Amino acid sequence: RDQLLLYRKDFGGVLGTKSAWAILVYGLPTLALRVRQQEKTAMEVARFLCSHPKVQYVSYPGLHTFPQYELAKKTNG
């Protein structure tokens, strides 16, 4: 019993099939929209950090200063 509780603490519980199916079915149609919004937000955060005087370096593939920016742009579409 103690090992099971430790496992659940470290890895979380397992969703039931009905719960997992609902998350998949209702979440999948908006996945592309949510990912685009997350990319936009990440870029805003990266740009903000680049201009912040207390931040020395920002490593984000969407920034022109990223060493492999061209590769990231090519693989991202």
TrEMBL record:
Keywords: Membrane, Pyridoxal phosphate, Transmembrane, Transmembrane helix. The keyword Thylakoid does not apply. Gene3D superfamilies: Aspartate Aminotransferase, domain 1. Pfam families: Cys_Met_Meta_PP. GO terms for biological process: methionine biosynthetic process; transsulfuration. SUPFAM superfamilies: PLP-dependent transferases. InterPro entries: CGS1/2, Cys/Met-Metab_PyrdxlP-dep_enz, PyrdxlP-dep_Trfase, PyrdxlP-dep_Trfase_small. Coiled coil: none annotated. Its cofactor is pyridoxal 5'-phosphate. The chain crosses the membrane at residues 12-33. The keyword Transmembrane applies. One of its GO terms (molecular function) is cystathionine gamma-synthase activity. Belongs to the trans-sulfuration enzymes family. This is Cys/Met metabolism PLP-dependent enzyme. The lineage of its organism: Bacteria, Pseudomonadati, Candidatus Kryptoniota, Candidatus Kryptobacter.
